């Protein structure tokens, strides 16, 4: 949750005192002393410019707790972007999220504080790849994970996020489709296939069997070879090792992890679902298999919880977003997301359908 008391502070000293109160478990005081001035200035300027700041759950704790008006997972932040009447949306997250905000609310100025904050999943395919898959599987609806760029969304029938991926697939199977093109995350596809009782099919485009692998009456998800460079690093051995050291640990994994990791975990869900699980379900300790900053953010909210995380595994893209760059984004109105009108309109349809389902 964003800390309103920090945002309402009327001086740098008050900002620092409130940041220390919230974050003393996870950020050393000397670091907060350096950051309070910037946080105070961001909060002053965003009010002056009628801007809102959206912070993804992976933001580092000093930023996450001091400047965003809203924090959340991809789905939650997409909903807020669609509804806001602020003039400027500053997206403290990665480029595909900022593009989603622009598509959903195109009259707003949408800013991404670090120009190069990308995503390995989004980089794994482009619109041309989707067109080739549609030619290989004519008539199959295309579902894409929001972790893709606007040219891929423009070729998509319905988007999904980690919190509704299985529901979106199930919705299309219930409508009578037997084959769905489900892009671009190979492991998310495997995890969704297990949830909805479907087979994963590798397209000929990637050297797989394509349509030859589809039997009549079989529910099929055609996948792609995109992976998250962060979540693909977690292994079943990490979970075994944690259970050997802490037999009572509850393991929570993001569905971008490999199937064999999710199978060994106690729970899999979106970043917000993991946060809510730690808040709501009592356990002696939790291990979270996702970007490590999120563990700090959970501990700041729930100091009585013990959270194990593997901080050698980080998202280099999310970590580009800093308080310093967020202030610069506000001062210089940068880096603005600009998309062709046609791409906005086509991408909008795929996001609207997702938001209608849930
Ligand atoms: P969530 O939608 O679960 O927040 O995931 C976004 C993401 O990029 C995870 O790596
Ligand atoms: Fe992309 Fe993975 Fe980083 Fe999420 S954690 S933004 S999926 S690279």
**Count of domains:** 3
Question: What is the H-and-E element order?
Answer: HHHEHEHEHEHEHEHEHEEHEHEHEHEHH
Question: Quick one: biggest sheet?
Answer: 5 strands, parallel
What small molecules accompany the polymer chains? Answer: 1,3-dihydroxyacetonephosphate, iron/sulfur cluster
Question: Overall 3D geometry?
Answer: globular
Helical residues, percent: 40-55%
CA radius of gyration is 21 Å
Strand content: 5-15%
Structural class: alpha/beta
The CATH architecture designation of the largest domain is 3-Layer(aba) Sandwich
What's the pLDDT, averaged over the residues? 97
Distance between the termini: 22 Å
CATH superfamily of the largest domain: NadA-like
Q: In words, what does this structure look like?
A:
This protein has 358 residues and is of the alpha/beta class. 49% of the residues are buried. The protein folds into three domains: 4-118 and 318-332, NadA-like (Rossmann fold), CATH 3.40.50.10800; 122-227, Rossmann fold (3-Layer(aba) Sandwich), CATH 3.40.50.10800; 231-301, Rossmann fold (3-Layer(aba) Sandwich). The chain has helices at residues 4-8, 12-23, 29-48, 61-66, 74-83, 95-104, 127-136, 150-153, 165-174, 186-196, 236-245, 259-264, 271-280, 293-301, 323-332, 341-357, and strands spanning 51-56, 70-72, 88-92, 109-111, 142-145, 158-160, 179-183, 199-201, 220-222, 249-253, 267-268, 285-289, 307-309. It has 16 helices and 13 strands. The model has no long low-confidence stretch (mean pLDDT 97). α3 runs parallel beside α15 (323-332) and α5 packs parallel to α6. The protein is globular. The strands form three sheets. The protein has a five-stranded parallel sheet, with helices on both faces. Strands 2-1-3-4 form a four-stranded parallel sheet, with helices on both faces. A four-stranded parallel sheet has the order 11-10-12-13, with helices on both faces. It binds 1,3-dihydroxyacetonephosphate and iron/sulfur cluster.
